[in-house]
Amino acid sequence: MRETVTGLVLTYNGERLLEKCLKSLDFCDELLVVDSQSTDRTREIAEQCGARVIVRPWPGPVDQFNFALGEIGTAWVISLDQDEYLTEELRRNILKNLDKKERLAGYFVPRSSFYFNRFMKHSGWYPDYLFRVFRSGEMEVTASGAHYHFEPRGESRKLSGDILHYPYESFRQHMDKINYYAEEGAAALREKGRKGGVWRALLHAKMRFIKLYLLKLGFLDGTAGLCNALAGFYYTFQKYIRVEETKKWGDG
Predict the structure, then answer these.
(1) According to DSSP H, which parts of the chain are helical?
(2) Which of 107, 105, 100, 134 is closest to 1 using CA atoms?
(3) DSSP per-residue letters across 218-249
(4) Kind of pairing between the strands at 76-81 and 156-158
């Protein structure tokens, strides 16, 4: 008999793909959704899928994940974002390895992300190995700007089969997220004492484009790769130009 497992999803206005996300985790002994006060059908969908739903204001990723993990009593956790779901291959491999009862901290799994008109195979997007299947108490959450990371506290292995990820539904939504990420990134740089300004912003943005489009072979992803590299240029420029922005325009 395999060890018990909880499927964990943090949500905020995630009705677009939440049903697919939770149904891909339907082999779990428990589904836990911690929702940051959604205003759409997120909580209704979660409850219809059999999840236990806890509503809690968003305090940041580290605090929210640590709270959620404190609510879990199973031996294992599988964590997905609300815009992700497991392929059938990955589901089978997770179950097969949980049956082995190995004394591991957990497993890294590849994530395949859709952008514009394709699943990206280059541009630094794939394979995007993430530590998403882990033993309770054997993972540490960290954050950099708006992005969180899971770090194993012990030995880990890799599994085959992808998490399918649909991060954006339009260019407009991508730009909205870039605005948020750039603001958070600028704040993080400011806290570290890093400097900004136009020339630093241009230099870092240029290097970001070169990395994504040339070094990471983004040109092999066609138009999607070009659009992504240009978005990376814009994000990086915005992040560094905002570091020294300390007041509203026109405030004298």
Answers:
(1) 18-23, 42-48, 61-70, 88-100, 171-191, 198-210, 222-241
(2) 100
(3) GGGGHHHHHHHHHHHHHHHHHHHHTTT--S-T
(4) unpaired
b or e along 150-187 (b: 16 or more beta carbons within 10 Å of the residue's beta carbon)? bebeeebeebeebbbbbebeeeeebeeebeebbbbbbe
pLDDT tens figures, 42-85 = 999 999 999 999 999 999 999 999 999 999 999 999 999 999 99
**pTM, whole model, 2 decimals?**
0.92
HEC readout, 87-103: CHHHHHHHHHHHHHCCC
Most distant CA pair in the chain, distance: 69
Q: What integer best gives the mean pLDDT of the chain? A: 96
